[in-house]
# Entry
Amino acid sequence: MATRANIQTGTVAAPRAGAESPGPGFYVRQIVRYVMMAVVTLLLLGPFILAFFGSFKTTAEVLAWPPTLLPTQIRLENYNDVWNVLKDPNGNSYLPRWLFNSALLSATVVLTQLFFCSLAAYAFARLRFPGREAILAAALATLMVPGMVILIPKYQILNAMHLLNSYGGIILPGLVGASGIFLLTQFFRSIPRDLEEAAYIDGAGIFTTYWRIVLPLARPALATLAVLTFQGVWNDFLTPLVVMNTADMYPLTVGLSFLKGQFGVFYNLVLAGSMFNTIPMLILFTIFSRFYVQGSTYAGVKG
Amino acid sequence: MASEVAPIPKATGMSRQTTEALTGYLFVLPFLLIAGIFVFGAMLYTLYVSFTDLKLFNAPQFIGLKQYERVINNDLFWTAVRNTVTYSIVVVFFQTWLALILAVVLNGKIRGRQFFRVAWYAPSVTSSVVISLVFIWIFQSTGVLNYLLSSLFGWAGFQPVSWLTDAKAHTALPALMLLNISTTAPTFMLFFLAALQDIPADIYEAASLDGAVGAQQFWKITVPMLRPIFLLVIVLGTIGTLQVFDQVYIMTAGGPLDQTTTINYLVYDAAFTQSKMGYASAMAVVLFVIIFVLFLVQRRLIGGEDQNAR
# Structure
């Protein structure tokens, strides 16, 4: 990995003179740079590392002054406690239900976005039809619209459709989105047309060409869209806060806010609960970090 | 169904162009429906509702500009505008520069760039809810921040502060700003990093031949070359910060003494806890106008001749 980074650096900025004869100034600068990077890493990750340790502490220790770094004893029970601390009238725990809701909503929206965004993107990238550019521009404009501005009508419309407090209330508006369309349109435009033309000459229809030829080629872009969409839904708070109004329908984000309201004094439990949201996301991120890093600069806008 | 259409140019009825156009419309139809209802239709509806007395589910009565009058005459609304705009300016300013500095650092001759890029970005995949919950804990009076500051500045008489709740100290809004800056900067760092790698090395070589060194190169080459990315980062940052909500809802609920009440928080509160949809819509429209005007101003100021963000 280090060698690859070095090769990349070769093509980048840094004045050549310094590289040929590294004087003492060069080493001083390097040391400053690494110290700075270490400090930044500590500042950015520190709070989350502390929270992770905190999730194993006792309630007294998590709020103690002076604060401790490591838990004196590792209380794994915190995770068991937070799993069971909130129950519905039938005695079923809420936290697993919230996890399930989050997973179900995220997975469904990922699938619908992959299909409908790629469909639209293929049309924008390859098919000629009157008004194409105008529609694309309108799609771009939707990215500018603040979420809160459309939340009130969304609530009213979902109410009229009887979709409030249901999975459909999140899934339907999230079916397809402009940022996904952009990401994929850009990608499709970068694929050479030869294969598609060959398929067409072989008698494949437009849908077949899109489904059989273009989608398999677009796997990296689809993966990027999938991870970004998953993150967007998994972490979304405001929309489910408004759409869902009984605790059994909450996704984990809204559930955690509810948990904090009910059990805020047991901050070790709040931190343990938070880990159920964070750790799956971090695992996903570590596995797919490549797609995140290219995707977030690509799509520009979250969610 | 589209696959049945036009198997081969050999025309059975429709020409290839017609098929292509019809298929095109069919493919974008789901987006048009969803965006038509939940974005464009919704915006028009918000605009309409802002002229009515809609509470929650009553039949809306047209009442002209009454809601806007109420908005304008409400001191709390102006407090929220002031908080939101201050928040936005401070956060965008610092997060943009921090993002650039981090990107320049990572773009140097260093080992393990991949590691740092992933490590610094990791907080950005964490949900705002968890970030808020963690930072309530960090910011509390017996929290880690106070501990660090007392250890470092205890000799100068530093006393622990309840960062999020002490109204006299006016620290709640700055605390939220700090949180936002540190969690968003790494995302924008990636934008700058990608752009930095696109700057051809020979420009820097030519500059060093002409005797330009470190800081000069940074101001004379790096910053101007990154102008389009600056615009993008500032515009996205502004749109994002003007809508700050999650952190306010979870960490402070607008307090202490409305010091962290933002426009979005007021809109939410009016619409969904007080059931004043008409009034909330009027505020949402004002928010939209603020965002749009700022976008145009920024594009004019930074965009220059190059009107394209990318």
Q: What stands out?
A: Residues 19-84 of chain A form one domain. Chain A touches chain B through 110 residues (CB under 8 Å). Chain A is about 75% helix and 0% strand. Residues 1-20, 299-303 of chain A have pLDDT under 50 and may be disordered.
